[in-house]
Design brief:
The protein is mainly α. It has a single domain, classed as Orthogonal Bundle (Arc Repressor Mutant, subunit A), CATH 1.10.10.10. The chain is built from eight helices and no strands. Helix 2 crosses helix 3, helix 3 crosses helix 7 and helix 7 packs across helix 8. The longest helix is centred in the last third of the chain and has 21 residues.
């Protein structure tokens, strides 16, 4: 829940508030939970919807690219894959990638966060976002193309 909120909101304090508020909403709504959807997707949908409400009320400020570490600012952990080229500056690559994710349109960013960062299946992502699986696949395809282009523009080509 916290990873989703921090990824969407890019602000630790707001993410903590959203998770706390979501837990209260989940507790209050639990007697009405019918189990038609999985518990995990039901809970994450509540968090995602609350994050969207917060985003609508404010404008994201990413700061300047030179002074802000977007990963640390959002309170996210860096756990690089072991098979990455050891000579590559992981932190720089991850910061470029994180900025590219932030720059995605909201619907693409949400799909990427759920599928790639949180490890949801396409079906779970679709259920959490309330859209079809084909819509999720389409959003992911467009998001991956945009992310790849941003990485190439930054001089990072992993293909």
């Amino acid at each position: 829940m916290l990873t989703l909120a921090r990824s969407m909101l890019r602000d630790r304090d707001q993410a903590d508030d959203v998770v706390a508020e979501s837990l209260i909403r989940i507790h209050d709504a639990a007697p009405g939970f019918r189990g038609e959807r999985g518990l995990k997707t039901w809970v994450m949908r509540i968090v995602a919807n609350r994050c969207r409400d917060v985003i609508r009320r404010r404008r994201f400020d990413a700061g300047t690219a030179d002074t802000l570490d977007p990963i640390a600012h959002a309170g996210l952990r860096v756990e690089p894959e072991a098979e990455w080229d050891e000579s590559m500056d992981r932190r720089t690559v991850l910061a470029v990638l994180e900025r590219a994710i932030v720059a995605l349109p909201e619907e693409q960013r949400e799909a990427v966060i759920l599928k790639e960062r949180l490890g949801y299946s396409v079906a779970e992502t679709a259920e959490t976002l309330g859209i079809s699986e084909s819509a999720v696949k389409s959003r992911l395809f467009r998001a991956r193309a945009a992310l790849l282009e941003r990485l190439r523009e930054a001089g990072i080509d992993r293909s």
